[in-house]
Amino acid sequence: MHPILKLVIQRLALGLLLLLAISAVIFLGVEALPGDTAQAILGQSATPQALANLREQMGLNDPALTRYFHWLGGVVTGDLGKSLTNGTDIATAIGQRLGNTLFLAGCAAVIAVPLALTLGLIAARYAGKWPDKLISAVTLTTISLPEFVAAYFVIYLLTQVFPIFQPVAMVFPGMGFWAKLNAVALPVIVLVMVVLAHMMRMTRAAILNVMQSAYIETAELKGVPPMQVIWRHAFPNAIAPIVQVVVLNLAYLVVGVVVVEVVFGYNALGQYLVDHVTKRDLPVVQAVGLVFAAVYIGLNIFADVVAIIANPRLRHPK
Amino acid sequence: MKLTLAATIGICLTAAFVLSAIFAPWIAPYPLDAAVGGVWEQPSAQYWLGTDTIGRDILSRLIYGGRITIFVALAASVLAFSLGSFFGFLAAVRGGMVDSILSRIVDLMMAIPSLIVALVVLSVLPLNLTVLILVMGVLDSTRVFRLSRAVAMDIAVMDYVEAAKLRGEGQAWVIFREILPNALSPLVAEFGLRFIFAVLFISTLSFLGLGVQPPLADWGGMVKENKDGLIYGRSAALMPAAAIAALAISVNLVADWVLSRTTSLKGGRGG
Amino acid sequence: MADPLLDIRNLKIEATVYPPGEKPQDITIVHGVSVSVEKGKVLGLIGESGAGKSTIGLSAMAYGRGGVRITGGEVMVNGRDILKIGAGGLRKLRGHEVTYVAQSAAASFNPAKKLMEQVIETTLRHGLASRDEAEKRAVMLFGKLGLPNPETFGDRYPHQVSGGQLQRAMTAMALCPKPDLVIFDEPTTALDVTTQIDVLAAIKEAIQDTGVAALYITHDLAVVAQVADHIMVLRHGKKVEYGDTRQIIEAPRQDYTRALVSVRSIEHEEKQPTADPVLRVENVTARYRGTAFDVLKNISVELHPGQTLAVVGESGSGKSTLARAITGLLPPSRGRITFAGRELSAEQTARSRDDLRELQMIYQMADTAMNPRHTVGTIIGRPLEFYFGLKGEEKRKRVQELLDEIEMGKGFLDRYPAELSGGQKQRVCIARSLAAKPKMIICDEVTSALDPLVADGILKLLLDLQKIENVAYLFITHDLATVRAIADSIAVMYRGEVVRYGPKSDVLAPPFDAYTDLLLSSVPEMKLGWLEEVIAGRRMESAGN
């Protein structure tokens, strides 16, 4: 078997194993924490009889391991159980909201990735000169802002000082694509702001790192023009680190999206998660937590696979 | 190395935040929870930053809130540091099984974003300051672990550490006299970054309603309380958000300065 | 006389340095040097690190590395000043009229592209030939440079070929566009000595066959003497001496040049073995944990008090591993080590404090061998305190005595390693090991990272100290000149085995085994025509076989 194929398969298997381990942590680890689910649902004033009934009904008297495998079996077949608080099917609820979350994150990524790469390239090209310093100074401040703080500054600026947008982002089924886009404009701006700084700084570092290699000097000493140096000699070697940067930040976007959804009252997965954490609706929290973990791990596997494929030493073994 | 302008600003602002947190009861013009004025009053000589949704003085709440935010963040980052650097050094010096087991546990914890882990865990645990500090501290210790392990590993393979071992020095001398002095600067800079992260983390949790619970107030919670003020065009509602940003940026400036000092020390003269 | 091909006049080069905690400073690194090379001739530029030789070499392409600026003078190539031809003009010059061969070809080839693509890139870019012609020429050059399978060599990626082959490929890359001048910047320095000679011969032949002019930059006078028509000796960015190769080698005019020519002529009389060796290594075999391959195979050597055993070999021969086995950092799987009459525990941690004290070690890189956060006083004082319990004034006095012994004098006690020069650092390391009053010191390539004259000083110091303290040295090195200078007995190592062992006079006298012969004959000698003699000798031998 080609060594690359072997490595990729290994990496995928490792990812699946990791996801399995995470599912165990999410289920068993949470079970092991001090805290009684039944008590949490019914509150401190619940009678012992009511608690016992609920435990029986939820199967909480079975051993944790049995319940874990039961749960895991459900997860694999797409059955995530029912919400404790309102009895709705969790899989259906996630299905409805996942699309909205991906739409929001996707819009942000479509804007942030090319913008960050371009700015990163400019900063690297003019390293130490004013364009670089300007970009670095601006990004250093935005890096220090949590998502919700950035969100309120953006809201204040774009709905009060310059009233261009509505401060809530409502999307509902049947809404047209353009109407949807208009509705998510503000949250997307916030997400782009938050993710852009990191992505741009890391892109700059990745390119500078490659540009300092001896083979770039060789190319310059061969009389290759600057853009050709970047395109022919730096780019093929910078693919892997840049993809790593992009994916790492997309994974970061997955977290940012949770907070931004809450700020704008955007009905999607993050909001759903936070609502049910507040209601202590454990089955929902575990299911949504697993979905977020799967997306995050999936993105990281993708980055690693690209890095493996882009490595000439692995592609052309001795 | 001299103080840069940015570092001076950072140190002054950070000091101001810390002092106002320590001396909050003496500085704050009004009590934390008293409705002293009308609803959403504009800033005035009486209420410097205006009043909030039920007529409490925003400046006073900001000063008391800073206390909670800084205290929780500091406690969490101290915990993260003690745990992370202890296990990190242990993994680096002992190596072998100890290292493998610790590293795999940390890999697992870092395989999903901290916020998601925190949300899952907090859906079960009671919400109080101790739990928050513990959860944040443990989650954040993974990053400190990775850094201190990496730093200690880099130093442990140096010839001067080998020379000390060949001399017959004990584990204590190797760790405290050979490794620690060289690992200290990057770790100190990292402490600043971890503290910022903790400030942002606790603020985010409180903002989501899963952090500090009323009647206590912190900055993140205050943003949540006052968010409606934005719709009425009250800029004062942004004050807690601005405070978070200002604290984060000023600590960042200090950490940046410490970090640059560290790298220049490594090079040494003519080195 | 016709105009020279390259004529550098009164060149001044500056650089900006950034001392930590201070303002950036402009320093001059080349002070008005003039260099000229005629068509088809080879000029050798020689000097220690910091002499400015690479900087001058790159100025022939108007290139400044890392913030280096040409601030004065003219660089005439083919009759025009290339400092005035602008970026576009320089692109036409570089890779066409003047090409470059770097020290580390391994880093200088783009890992993501095939060798052929890179070798013919400039030829195509400058429109000098069609792709077919360019590839044909590249294959021809591969063959001329002695690369295996020249027809298919270019299809490989850089990581798929060896370091010596990459260096030849880089030479092919430089020669492919038929340049007027090639700059060779230490092209063989990173190679093992047995590889160096072949690459050197290949480069020399290629230069002669193509009739190209060259600037050959190196710190090794014996190497440059084999290829250059003229030699310029540089020091601290200034010209020391210029002349034809024979004159520089055989009748140097300046003291500095004389020192360079005679640097390896330390007089050392071989001592006879005594009755009781201080170290006896018997049948030691070792492997690294988790591997199935013995890095040391059945090693037996002895070292006598007050004498030096030189362990010689190329990279990967196992010579440093032997040191690790003796110190107990890599416990041998078989065999026994006796030291000062007692058998040593295999594990370092199980050894007595006296065993540890009497067996000291000095490292190749003095930089990393000293804790940067400790002062010289602490570094030398610690063994005194640790082994002898010396404290306070008593310790301070003894440290100062040791500093005097290593010829460093007063004022160093409170300095940090970063404030010392390379030679001073290595001296402090020597003092630290002497502080333990050892019976034996393992010296692991202690002079390899130093400039020749500095290294010479360290070797002399070590020999002097040996006379005073009667300490034995296990001297690990790849440099045969160093071995000749200081050894009493020699062990030649190759692939984990000792292939030749005995008193210096025996080991260095024929008849030789095949490897020792190869190794000894590969070491460049400071005489004209040495390279041709050796290569001719080897060809005759292989023809005879």
TrEMBL record, chain A:
Residues covered by the ABC transmembrane type-1 domain: 98-303
Domain of life: Bacteria
Record-linked InterPro entries: BPD_transp_1_N, MetI-like, MetI-like_sf
Record keyword Iron-sulfur present: no
Pfam name, any one: BPD_transp_1
Residues spanning the membrane: 12-30, 102-122, 134-157, 177-197, 242-264, 284-310
Gene Ontology terms: cellular component: plasma membrane
Keywords for the protein's UniProt record, in alphabetical order: Cell membrane, Membrane, Transmembrane, Transmembrane helix, Transport
Membrane topology note: Multi-pass membrane protein
Keyword set includes Chloroplast: no
Chief location: membrane
Cellular localization per UniProt: Cell membrane
A Gene Ontology BP annotation from the UniProt entry: transmembrane transport
SUPFAM superfamilies reported in the protein's UniProt record: MetI-like
PANTHER family named among the record's database cross-references: DIPEPTIDE TRANSPORT SYSTEM PERMEASE PROTEIN DPPB-RELATED (PTHR43163)
Family listed: Belongs to the binding-protein-dependent transport system permease family.
Protein name from the UniProt record: Peptide/nickel transport system permease protein
Organism: Albidovulum denitrificans
Lineage: Bacteria, Pseudomonadati, Pseudomonadota, Alphaproteobacteria, Rhodobacterales
From TrEMBL, chain B:
Record's bilayer topology term: Multi-pass membrane protein
UniProt xrefs under Pfam families: BPD_transp_1, OppC_N
CDD domains: TM_PBP2
GO biological process: transmembrane transport
Keyword Membrane attributed: yes
Keywords, in A-Z order: Cell membrane, Membrane, Transmembrane, Transmembrane helix, Transport
Compartments (UniProt record): Cell membrane
Residue ranges of domain ABC transmembrane type-1 in the record: 66-255
Main location: membrane
Gene Ontology CC terms, in alphabetical order: plasma membrane
Transmembrane segments: 68-93, 114-139, 191-210, 231-255
PANTHER family from the UniProt entry: OLIGOPEPTIDE TRANSPORT SYSTEM PERMEASE PROTEIN APPC, PEPTIDE ABC TRANSPORTER PERMEASE PROTEIN
Family: Belongs to the binding-protein-dependent transport system permease family.
Name listed for the protein in its UniProt record: Peptide/nickel transport system permease protein
Species name: Albidovulum denitrificans
Automatic annotation (TrEMBL), chain C:
Main location class: membrane
Membrane protein topology class: Peripheral membrane protein
Gene Ontology BP term (one): peptide transport
One Pfam short name: oligo_HPY
Any GO molecular function: ATP binding
Residue ranges of domain ABC transporter in the record: 11-261, 279-520
Keywords of this entry: ATP-binding, Nucleotide-binding, Transport
InterPro entries: AAA+_ATPase, ABC_transp_ATP-bind, ABC_transporter-like_ATP-bd, ABC_transporter-like_CS, Oligopep_ABC_C, P-loop_NTPase
Highest taxon, organism lineage: Bacteria
A cellular component annotation (GO) from this entry: plasma membrane
Subcellular location: Cell inner membrane
NCBIfam families: PRK10419.1
Protein name per its UniProtKB record: Peptide/nickel transport system ATP-binding protein
Native source organism of the sequence: Albidovulum denitrificans
Lineage: Bacteria, Pseudomonadati, Pseudomonadota, Alphaproteobacteria, Rhodobacterales
